[in-house]
Amino acid sequence: MMACHPFNLVVGSRLQLEAESDDCSRTVTLLGYMEPHSVMLSWPERDGVCMALAAGEPVLIRFEAGDSLYQFQSRVLCTCTDPYPYLHVAFPEGVQSVRGRRASRVPVNDMAMMLVMEEQGQKLSVALADISMTGARLVAGIRLGEVGERFSIEIPSLNGSTGGKRLVLPCEVRYVREEMSSNAGKRVYHHGVEFAGLNHQAMAFIEEYIGNKVVEHRGAGG
């Protein structure tokens, strides 16, 4: 069952937008809003190009607040290109919370679970420390990138859910934290990454993976 939530986001917040004409969610920035008229968002991009969106097109908006994930249905009111690309969507009639586990960050603590990242034609193995529906924390012995940089990580499928193929998850670096490893005394880097442009298959995979981890943790605690 979904619960209502007030729309009280801070300007500059990152949201996920899904349009009917697109099979992926796109990261957008909240530029402002005026209740009960409209919400102003940066124009979502696909491969660096503004997506084709028309007035009246339905969209689904998701965002995180605390440890929960919320969403609301809306529609495009108008699109603007001057002085920069942005759009107005209808102010939500209601905001609903999605099941808590979708946004809760679940610790993995399984260093054998490795991700493979393409960097300059080479693959680097990094550890997955925790994961949520909107992002993850990666740990590596080197700095994988700077804040704002994008890369893709590959992760093995679960029980052949993707036909034995490795799933590709596009990411954007949100923070990098340097620490000394407690067990080996070596320098390690923690990278908070936000998933960007996930298709429905990738989102279903992450939800299944998180669900399995939640069951494991409950079993261990019981």
UniProtKB/TrEMBL annotation:
The keyword Nucleotide-binding applies. InterPro entries: PilZ_domain (IPR009875), Split_barrel_FMN-bd (IPR012349), T3SS_YcgR_PilZN (IPR009926). The keyword Phosphoprotein does not apply. Keywords: Bacterial flagellum, c-di-GMP, Cell projection, Cilium, Flagellum, Nucleotide-binding. Residues 11-92 form the Type III secretion system flagellar brake protein YcgR PilZN domain. It comes from the Bacteria. GO terms for molecular function: cyclic-di-GMP binding. Residues 101-210 form the PilZ domain. This is Flagellar brake protein. It comes from Thiohalobacter thiocyanaticus.
